[in-house]
Every structure is written in C-alpha cells, then in structure tokens.
Amino acid sequence: MSTTTALWDDLLAGDELAHLASEPAREARTAPVPDSLEPAVRDALARRGIDELYAHQAESYAAARGGGNVIVTTGTASGKTLAFNLPVLDALAADRHARALYLYPTKALAQDQARSLGALGLAPVRAAIYDGDTPTERRRQIRGWANLVLTNPDMLHIGVLPRHDLWGDFLHNLRFVVVDEAHVYRGVFGSHVANVLRRLRRLARIYGAEPQFLLASATIANAGELAQALTGEEATVVEDDAAPRAERTIALWNPPLLDAELGLRASALGEASRLLAGLVDRGLRTICFAKSRKSAELIHRFAADRLDAATAARLAPYRAGYTPQQRREIERRLVEGELLGVTSTDALELGIDIGDLDCAISVGFPGTVASLRQQWGRAGRRGHGLAILIASEDALDQYFMREPPTLLERRVEAAILDHANPRVLDGHVAAAAFEAPIDEADAATLGPEALERAAHVPELRHTARGWVWAGKDAPAARVPLRSTSPDSFLVVDASTGDVLGLAEQERAYSTVHEGAVYLHLGRQYLVRELDLQARRAVVEPFDGNWYTQAKKETETSIEEAVRVERRLGLELSFGRVSVTEQVVAYQKKAVADGSTLDTVPLDLPPTTFDTEAVWFVPRPHQLEGLEAMPLLLSSLHAAEHSLIALLPLWAMCDRWDIGGLSTNLHLDTGAPTVFVYDGHAGGVGIAERGFDRFEGWVADTVRLLEGCPCEKGCPSCVQSPKCGNLNEFLDKGGALTLLTRMSNSG
Fold first, then answer.
1. pTM of the full predicted structure?
2. What's the Cα-to-Cα distance from 296 to each of 123, 272, 363, 695, rounded to whole Å?
C-alpha cells in the first residue's frame, strides 16, 4: 500500500485538494459453486479458474432457480455478469430447446458479452448478436440456430416484436430475459423500454412462455422499484456486494478560484491534463473521463505536451465512434500495459472491459452518483487505487467540493420512469395492437393503463377480438424510444448525410435553432438550417471556441393539482401543467470565460406541451422584506435556479431534463409562485420525486447557497447554463433568505 501511495502523494497537494478520503479494502465473501449446476457449466467455470462464487452470485443463482425475477445491484467489477449468466447457462445446458434474450443499451456492450460467452467454450450455448448491423442473410440463420440472442431495445422494438411470426419458436421457448445496465433505463428512454418489455412479456405469453427477468444495475436507491417499473413484475433484490475491493483513495479536486464574484475558476481541463500526465509519468495506468469529445481530446493533447515523446506515445483517446477493431486494439494495449493513459467521454463509462487500472479521473460530475461510482470503479482493480473528481464551475460540482459528505456518504439516487405517461404509452398500445388484438386479458402484461388508452389511439378499432390496428404501416417505426414526441426533428450531419439524433419538438427550438452549437456524443456541430416543414436540423462539424444559449419566454398554466400538502410552512402542489415556450433570441458565449460575444434575434413559433410540475406559493411571512420589485422576482428566480441545480441529487436526471418558472404573480394562484417541471412532454416522474423529497431538497439548496463564496450569485450557485432569461434578475441573498425561512418551518 505505502509504495503505491508514495507514487501519487506529492501530486495530491496544494489548495486545489478540497478533500481526501480513503475507502478501506474489503475481503471477498464466497460460496461454493452449487452442486445443482449442470456439469458442462461447472467444467467451463473450472477451465476459467472459477472454483467458488461470490456470495451475491450464489444468492442470485438460488433466487433465479426458485423461479422468480431477480435484480442484482452491486458495485463496478463485482461479477454481476456471472450472477445473471449462471442460471441462463445452466438452463441452456440442461434443455436444448430453452432460449434466452440479452438486452444491452449499446452495441459495444453486446459485442463484449458475446466475446465473454464465446471464451467460456460452452458447447450447448449458441450465442449470436442480432442488431441493426446484422446482415439480412444472417438474420434468418440466427432466428433458427441461436439459443442465446443479444440485442438492444431498439431492435427488439422495431425488428423483433412486430415480426414475432418469424420468432415463434424462440418466443415459445423463451426462459430468460436479461436486462443489463438497467439503471440506464430511466426517464423517457426507460419509460419506453418498460413498454417494450411489457409487449415482449405479452407476446411470450401468447406463444406459451413466461420468461424470468434477470436485471443487473449499478448501485441505485430503488432497485426493486426499478425492476417492477421496467417489467411490470416483482423481483428479488440482490444488493449485498460480496466481491473483494482494494483500498481506494478518493480526492476531490477544485481548480483555483480566479474571481470569487464571477465564480471563475482555472480550467478543469488544464488540471486534468496536469494530473493525468503526473500519474502516467509515475507508471500508473489511468483513465480520464470528460463530458465531451472535444474536452477528452484537449486533455489528451495537453497531457501529451507535458510528457517526453516515449511516454506521450503511451497515451490514447478512447471514444464512441471508433470501430470495434480500433476499440479492441486500445483495450488490448491497455490490458497488456502498452498504454498507460486513456482519455474517454462519459459515453464509455458502462461495463466495457478495459482491464485493470490504477487511477480514474472524472472531469466534472457526470450527472449521477451512480455514473461517478461506475467511473471510479475502474480504479484499483489490482491493488490500491486512486479516484479523483475534478470540479467544474457547475453548482452541483462546487456544492460537492464544499460538502464532501453529500457526495461520499450519500445513498445513491433513484432511477425514475413512468411507462404510463400517455405521450409514451399510446405509441406502444398501437404497436401491441399491430402485434396481436388487445383484449381485457392483456391488462396483466401491458398494464390496465394500456386498456384505458386504447380508445384514445386514433388508428385502433374495437372488434369482437379486441382492439385491432387499422392503419397501413407498422406503428412501432413511428415511436422513437428516446423521445416523448412523435413530432421530433431529425438532426442531420450535412458533411456525411448521417442522422445524428432526434430533438423533441418542445426542445428543438432552443437546442437546434439556426446558429446553435449542438453537442452529440461529445462532439460539436453548428446548426446551419432548421427546416420547420421537413422537421429537420442540418448541422456541420464545428471547432469554434464559443457556445450558444437560447433566450426564451415561458408561461405555465395549472391544469390539475393532483397532490396538495402543507409542507415547510406553505402549500406545496404536484400536478399537471401546460407549458408554453417561445425562443426569441440566442447569445454566443466565449468558452474561455462565458462572456457574451453577440445576441442574435430569432423568429420561431411558440410550442406548448403538457407535463408534470411541483410548485409552491411562499407565505407572506416567508417573503417579509423581499416584497418590493424587482427584488421579489429576482429572489424567486434565483431560488428556482438553485433548486433545479440540486434536484438531480434526488432523482437520476440531468438539469437539462428539468424546466422552471418563477413569477411575482401567477394567474392561476394569484400570488408569487415557483414552478419546477419535467422538461419532457407528459412527465416521467422527476417533479413528483421532488415533491416527495421536498424537505431534503430545500435543505440541500440552502447549504449550496450558504457555502458559495460569491456575494451576488455566480455559475456555481444561482446562474444556470440553460436560463431562458439569460441569467438576468437573480438575487442570491433573497433566495437564501426565502429558502432558509422555508427550511426552518419544517
């Protein structure tokens, strides 16, 4: 231990070190390989040198053998893969007719798993990947030959379920469905995937099968709820991590403050390159995660410039967009020790096998504690490891630097989704009706909400057989899994013709307006044209040193208050609201210091969408001394921003998933009101989580404001990178006064 510690001790010095902690080593708790395991599987494990299991793997196997669904939620590198593979491989070895379906959020993860299964050399297992890259001529062969198919939710949704007649034998014999990286299925994407899994359960039942679901997740606060929300069925939670863990040193690193009033700090990228170069120079294998491809490439370049040529040659960037061959080559070089340092975008934090590393650096909080823990879990698999979080100027990052226990001792967040959101559900009801007529019995798999919505889906007809699809084309193709709006805009790269992604209509005007700088997989693009008729944004690669921020006018109207409670001395409401937004201009801002370079007017139509919100009306005594304008509006606005900044601590979401409005007089309440709403049409449960956890959420926000060293408000407390008013009318002191009075009323 002391030798390794000495290697980085001198680096972790200076005012930048906000906090240093140590997580002790942990011994493995093991269990014997079960006697009931098929001999072929026991032999395959023995060939890999596995002669005992971790206790949680044995627990998962026993729970699955009992016939129920299971979710395993343990740390990075804790052997979750073997936990779900064991019951599946056992079933396939015992019954040549049995089938299993593995779902992965990315193609790269499916390829990794296919390689791992191949390496086991288990003759009864015939594994194959079936995704968008699978050649047409091979697809038919896979459907008839494979007994373990690896795919992704998109392919299941569009390529398998609507063509279930081609999969009849597979569905009839389907014993297990594995859902790996289950924590990724949250928010809008998770709400869609939950419906895809319900459609799968329904079709399996039609073909005479009742598959068990085996889920694996990073450590989250609500694993059982997530499994229930995704599959519609109860699951046994296995969460007592019995894998060994080496000692880990944790460093929270805050770049030097250059201007306290502006909240301006030295570059996090510069600090990252200095630490990366220092660690690599000491022979320590290090991975550095950055939020964008450009950031990852800059850190790589800056670090290489600090090192001699021979050491610099042992650094490599590692990002989405590489071919599988390029990725495997980097993985091989890392595993064999040829490479010492890798810079990566967050997109590759999932469980891809990149060998044993000594150190992991996260540049900027990645949005969730679960993601951060996954990144840090890369460090110290062989021995004493080092994990570093380098803070950005963002409010949440700076909050963690001042309040380390809120990060290091916090129970991780809850993954939240809502499969019954009509904006999500309706498309899947149509898809299910196309797959087979929907009748009352389908409430058991699709959920009662699906039956209720069937009457509202335009192209469904009610017949003696149930609700049937009366349209011409397969409706699944109209339902994008990452959007709540069927009227999304395609984002097209003019240089290649590739479709980069989708922008929901309610977000398109603020994210892909003409002149906007658009980020995709960490890469920058400039929007050349937004075609409102063709619903298409045409973009081109962009390497400039400025970003854009939209100015928009927002109105909310309360449609229905679903829950109203007296909390923190005021009336707190949760319910349905209608949000109208109009983007009227955008600013170009310098990356270096956030200064405004230009303001450009825009002429775009307003958009209106229904969603869920939490809102509150402060009592007169809570606003005492703040009643005069513009202080009242500025105090409410700053409170709204800081609350939005910290809601991701309680719900697994990004601040970009949340919207807000504060007003000195709202038409529906007749009083000063603050709204925080789900940014996706229909809502996915984020605002309701804020309602449920209101006291803790407000208390965290008070600590954020109290601890920030600025006097009047800065990007580390009340200023927001997505403010539609471009951060005008913000009063930090007023917000702190209001929220403190609220918190003290609890």
1. 0.83
2. 42, 10, 9, 38
CA atoms lying within 13 Å on the CB side of residue 278: 17
> What whole-number percentage of the chain has pLDDT above 90?
59
Task: State residue 352's pLDDT score.
Answer: 56
Q: What is the pLDDT of residue 723?
A: 74
Summarize the confidence of residues 436-454 as an average pLDDT: 96
Task: Check whether 453 has a pLDDT greater than 80.
Answer: yes
Q: Scanning the structure block, which residue is given the tokens 């919100």?
A: 613
| % of the chain residues with pLDDT over 70 | 95
Q: What is the mean pLDDT of residues 37-61?
A: 94
The DSSP code for 220 is: -
CA distances to 234, 431, 638 from 164, rounded to whole Å, are 26, 12, 53
Structure token pair of residue 95 = 């019954």
Q: Are 103 and 131 in contact (CB under 8 A)?
A: no
- Under a CB-based contact definition with an 8 Å cutoff, are residues 616 and 745 in contact? no
Burial (CB count <10 Å: 0-12, 13-18, 19+), residue 542: middle
- Measured CA to CA, the distance from residue 505 to residue 3 in angstroms comes to 56
**What sign does the CA torsion over 420, 424, 430, 433 have?**
negative
CA distances from 683 to 89, 285, 416, 623, 674 (A): 39, 43, 11, 30, 18
Using DSSP, how many helices (H) and how many strands (E) does the chain show?
Answer: 25, 31
Q: How far apart are CA 323 and CA 604, in angstroms?
A: 39
CA distances from 172 to 201, 205, 429 (A): 11, 8, 22
How far apart are alpha carbons 497 and 366 in whole angstroms? Answer: 30
Angstrom distance (rounded) from CA 76 to CA 374: 6
